[in-house]
Amino acid sequence: MMAERGIRLVYGGGAVGLMGIVAKTVLEHGGEVIGIIPEFLMTVEVGDPGVTELIVVDTMHERKARMFGLSDAFVVLPGGLGTLDETFEIATWKQLQLHAKPIVALNIDGCWDGLRTLLDSIVRGGFAHPSMPKLISMVESVGDVLTTAETAVSPGAELLPSHLQKK
């Protein structure tokens, strides 16, 4: 779908795992793929020299900053700690109104139900505005990812300061 729509994939640069499969598939269908990987992960993640462009950086922080700068939206696939790290950072930046780019989590087989529960719990505890969970749109099917990203609404200005005010 990305290749058909001319949507470039920006990802962590590895040839393995779920993202490696996504990158390979986008390339096989004539799409553009930019991988960004720190030097120390070139061996561990088996950096993919077959992508359209492979950018090797010094640190994880530089990787995330470059990925952010080159991306128009973020899609969260099922994953582990690295996925959660990147998701929380990009969602925090959105809450801080450093960007208004869509964040869409693909909740296949309930993979991110726990994340949804956690975000709701943070709101119930008074640590975030009630609209905070909407920073991350959740979809149940691959077919809904791109449409949701294209129609995502930016958070309101009240999201940042509302829960910090004295009551």
Largest sheet: 3 strands, parallel
Give the mean pLDDT: 92
Rg, Å, rounded:
17 Å
Distance between the termini: 48 Å
CATH fold group of the largest domain: Rossmann fold
Low-confidence stretches: none
% residues in beta strands: 5-15%
Shape: globular
H/E element order: HEHEHEHEHEHEH
- What is the CATH level 1 assignment of the largest domain? Alpha Beta
Name the helicity range. 25-40%
Number of helices: 7
Write the layout of secondary structure elements.
Layout: H1 2-5, E1 9-11, H2 17-28, E2 33-38, H3 41-44, E3 53-57, H4 60-70, E4 74-76, H5 81-95, E5 103-106, H6 113-124, E6 137-139, H7 145-151
Parallel strand pairs: 1-2, 2-3, 4-5, 5-6
Mind explaining what this structure looks like?
This protein is an alpha/beta fold and 167 residues long. The protein has two domains: 1-71, Rossmann fold (3-Layer(aba) Sandwich); 77-159, Rossmann fold (3-Layer(aba) Sandwich), CATH 3.40.50.450. It has seven helices and six strands, in the order αβαβαβαβαβαβα. A three-stranded parallel sheet has the order 1-2-3, sandwiched between helices. The chain has a three-stranded parallel sheet with strand order 4-5-6, with helices on both faces. It is globular. The mean pLDDT is 92.
What does this entry show, briefly?
This protein has 167 residues and is α/β, with parallel strands linked by helices. Helices cover 39% and strands 14% of the residues. The strands form two sheets. The protein has a three-stranded parallel beta sheet with strand order 1-2-3, with helices on both faces.
How would you describe this structure in keywords?
39% helix; 2 domains; 6 strands; alpha/beta; Rossmann fold; globular; 7 helices; 3-stranded parallel β-sheet; 167 residues
